[in-house]
Amino acid sequence: MQSPVNNPSVRIACSSCNLRELCLPVDLDGHEMQQLDALTSLKRTFRRGEYLYRSGEAFRALYAIRTGFFKTQALHEDGREQVTGFQMPGEIIGLDAICSDAHSCDAVALEDSEICEIPFDRLEELSRELPNLQRHLHKIMSREIVRDHGIMMLLGSMRAEERLAAFLLNLSQRFSARGYSPNAFHLRMTRQEIGSYLGLKLETVSRTLSSFQEHGLLSVRVREVEIMDMLRLRSFVVGA
Amino acid sequence: MQSPVNNPSVRIACSSCNLRELCLPVDLDGHEMQQLDALTSLKRTFRRGEYLYRSGEAFRALYAIRTGFFKTQALHEDGREQVTGFQMPGEIIGLDAICSDAHSCDAVALEDSEICEIPFDRLEELSRELPNLQRHLHKIMSREIVRDHGIMMLLGSMRAEERLAAFLLNLSQRFSARGYSPNAFHLRMTRQEIGSYLGLKLETVSRTLSSFQEHGLLSVRVREVEIMDMLRLRSFVVGA
DNA sequence: CGGAGAGTTGAGAAACCTCAAAGCAGGTGG
DNA sequence: CCACCTGCTTTGAGGTTTCTCAACTCTCCG
């Protein structure tokens, strides 16, 4: 993922990384911002396919994605694994590890990526001093919970077409918020990964995309998606 | 739900309510505990069917369930609603409201219940002073995220039998942690509500329960469940 | 005792999955 | 630079699971 063309949300981010998730701006003055920057100075890069962390590893830090694209996946006891999310620049991952001091899922780079490490001890420390930061951290965690509820709803009560429409619209909206086109984008993940995330088999994902294309909702060429009829796509999700 | 017969986890809870979720004990000394107690002194009771809060209401406080049983449900834009969780004594609800300062789901009492209100401003304030409490709050939120991932996995990759087995084992484990029998318990929710939570129709829930009974895994009489073969029930969830 | 909500059960339909085969794209090594 | 190989994607046919619609029963209250 290249740098956004023109994105006001990104401009207000702290200089070293996007600690704040987009749409959740935090109110910090210059000095406070410096402290936050100092906290988030450790950066690392990952090649496509590399693991940022694995299930079971000790928890030390949260990670803010600076550039690139990740997926997180949880493994079942019986070996089945399920993608629990796709993460874009500006988003925070690792929150699920706090409760047990160990990561409960894997995070894998879907393309060459750069992240910014946020030592959790020090984040907690700093957030005791900066109530704005404290509240912001709570909001990020709460937002993750709400997001998960949305996915539960999708998995529990939507049909394949609705799930895929919701998925594409969500991607579109997130790309758009980062200054990219909401109508045309590149999928970083395989059909299998999309299916895993949406509770569908890869063949169903492929068939449904083809069907969307036949009906003129969008055009797909392998991983290149162009949404042609945003309104009709939206009507899949909202209405029955 | 009556008071537990003999439950060590509850004994270490603060006196006025179970702020800590079970299995996540917090390390506070006497004075700190007093401060926490002062925070959580407001109690309220609810009759079966009453709403603790509704989607859209302003967010002011978290709620610890002291006695009783709740469900939380999210409403779709199109009117569909989905149960996102069932809550028992000692559990905290309302975390999803932090991110937007408004509740994003309804909380409904499934039986006469008593809760303890925790004003969030003051909880944040106190957790700035007490690092142990701060970490504990973060763990509670993180635990909610992990729980939700578990449900996503259930919804995305399990069949009806597996989902129901997982659901019953989860209830059993939670009752057990509260000092009740893990083998025999009363369901507080309807088939419809179970189905909504598990992404199934009520008829499928009913049929699957009947099938479990036929196979000698458990006995069901409407809402009274007795698990007869815990191991075989477990094998549904772990194995293929 | 009657009514309303909850639960059970059956039959047929719909959605999605499984298995299989073939086409495509991108990377690697000759 | 091309050919090949591997992994990803598409499409088809048939099977399973779950849903839908419907009728009936049960249980709990008033």
Commentary on this structure:
- The structure is a homodimer of 240-residue chains.
- In chain A, the strands form three sheets. A four-stranded antiparallel sheet of chain A has the order 1-8-3-6. A four-stranded antiparallel sheet of chain A has the order 2-7-4-5. A three-stranded antiparallel sheet of chain A has the order 9-11-10.
- In chain A, helix 3 (120-129) packs across helix 4 (131-157), helix 5 (160-177) packs across helix 8 and helix 6 crosses helix 7 (202-214).
- In chain A, a hairpin with a 5-residue loop joins strand 4 and strand 5 (81-87).
- The first copy, chain A, folds into two domains: 5-154, Jelly Rolls (Sandwich); 159-234, Arc Repressor Mutant, subunit A, CATH 1.10.10.
- The first copy, chain A, has 240 residues and is an alpha+beta fold.
- The first copy, chain A, has helices spanning 8-11, 30-39, 120-129, 131-157, 160-177, 191-198, 202-214, 230-238; strands at 43-46, 51-53, 61-67, 70-75, 81-87, 92-93, 106-109, 113-119, 184-186, 218-221, 224-227.
- Chains A and B meet through helix 3, helix 4 and helix 6 of A and helix 3, helix 4 and helix 6 of B.
